[in-house]
Amino acid sequence: MKDQPLPSRRMFLAALPVVTAGLAASPPARAAGGVQPRWGMLIDTRRCIGCQACTIGCSMENALPIGQFRTTVATYAVTNGYGRTGVAMVPRTCNHCDEPPCIPVCPVGATYKRDDGVVLVDGDKCVGCAYCTQACPYEARFINHETGKADKCTFCSHRVDAGLLPACVETCVGGARVFGDLNDANSEISRRIKAAAGRTSVLKPEANSKPNVFYIGLDSELDGRVEGESAAEMMWRPGQTTHGA
To answer: Under CATH, to which class is 39-99+153-219 assigned?
Structure first.
């Protein structure tokens, strides 16, 4: 009997939304009626378990250098008014703002915003000056150790353009991330945001950057914070010396 071939990683990941969350559907390349889509993400922190599947899925999909991440899940110890302490999860990524402060500071025009709202970096133009990384209020940008260029979440635009979901959404085992067209009132993300009216928030609202990443269940004590230990940052890496060694 011949050995059966093992399923590919792409086949495995494609099945994840059905097997786990059952919430994600592939986004259309263009909204109904030919209206230009405006992509956004809704993150339900109540569903996030801090497993970092999104972080690893993103790293694998985008071939990121070891130790550098486009999305992470920060963890915080929080204490309520009754003195009870728990752990809060805050998934973080580029917010693909409507008024991105990273664009005007770029001296060569490498950072730009597509018509569908996705903020990208043109690697051929980028000189690695890091002005944009300093301007981002969400600390969502970094200089790639291998390319020397500015790097960040792209909403997996190469996947979205092909009608697929971003890797972080597809790999989220808890269904905490919903991606879709904010211009389509019937899209999953629009319906979720409408259903949660008055209970959604954004990170650092005082930055006035008009982010397109929204949160449900985000503790008000954390909406202005972007720093924090991430489990991904604490993972063992090749060549890393363990404590006490």
So the answer is: alpha beta
* Of 90, 58, 53, 66, residue with least CA distance to 222: 90
3-state DSSP of 103-127: CCCCCCCCEEECCCCCEEECCCCCC
Beta-carbon contacts of residue 164 (< 8 Å; ≥ 6 apart): 26, 27, 156, 170
Model confidence, pTM = 0.78
Helix (H, G, I), strand (E, B) or coil at 181: strand
Domain ranges of the chain: 39-99+153-219
Record the tokens describing residue 191, joined without a space: 């319906």
**What letter represents residue 19's amino acid?**
V
The pLDDT tens digits for 148-179 are: 999 999 999 999 999 999 999 999 999 999 99
CA dihedral (142, 144, 147, 149) in degrees, to 10, reads: 0
Please write the tens of the pLDDT for every residue from 73-86: 988 877 777 777 77
